[in-house]
Amino acid sequence: MTAATRRMGSARAAWWRQGWRRFAANRLSLIGLVLLALFVAAGLAAPLLAPFGPFQLGGPRLGAPSAVHLFGCDQLGRDIFSGVLYGARTSLAVGFLSVGLSLLLGITVGAVAGYYGGRIDDLAMRITEIFQVLPRFFLALIIVAMFGASLTGTIFVIGILSWAEIARLVRGEFLSFRDRPFVTAARAYGAGDAQIMLREILPNAIATVVVAAALQIPAAIILEASLSFIGAGDPTVMSWGRMLTSAQQYMRQAWWTAVFPGLAISLLAMSLALVADGINDFLNPRLGRAR
Description:
Elements: H1 3-25, H2 27-44, H3 46-49, H4 80-116, H5 118-133, H6 136-147, H7 151-161, H8 163-177, H9 181-188, H10 193-229, H11 240-247, H12 256-283, H13 285-290
């Protein structure tokens, strides 16, 4: 290992340590990180932690919380605790995968538009504006109704409808960086456009994109729950929105049927928002010092 490589590794480690200190200084972000870790663990280990299957019948109809059924049972005798655990898996899959697709599309469109400018930029931004003004929920509902409700389809639809904000952010960052001296130096050394975009500009623009993507995840989760609530979700997987729509007729006589799925949605969305705030501190030294 050369001295330059060791210095680079040491600088990278110092950057991570300083970023973590800024993140940890935000107590609410730490709470959000713990909550998010619990939800991720619950979703991944749902088959091991859930005492019953998500659609398994046999419990007492509208049974109150007990030692056997921690969160009680719904109107069909299904265990709500098991449903919440499996619902976490569904919500997290939709949130992270749909935002991953949104990032892929948004970064591609924004990078090309910001780097090349001109007519390419004009065309890309007009398309982006169309996607930004579309009513996302109703368009998602129409697409799901046309092509059928499935978890894969829901992820795809949400990702397709969410990339425009990412594209505008990436475009702005590329417009800011494309004429900087380090980019000019890379061109002088013979670097191609793809190399400049991926290796020179994108790493400098990624901080803003990561924070925006983290904020999109709870929005995607709430959109999926809304689709499931009105019956447009995948009927073969358990969803918190589906649990809420089943509970609405029994809220007065069995509050637990609605409280626990609703609380799960609220806590997961809140934890993701708090973690996004902490990521902003992690990636932004000036903001971390100001706080």
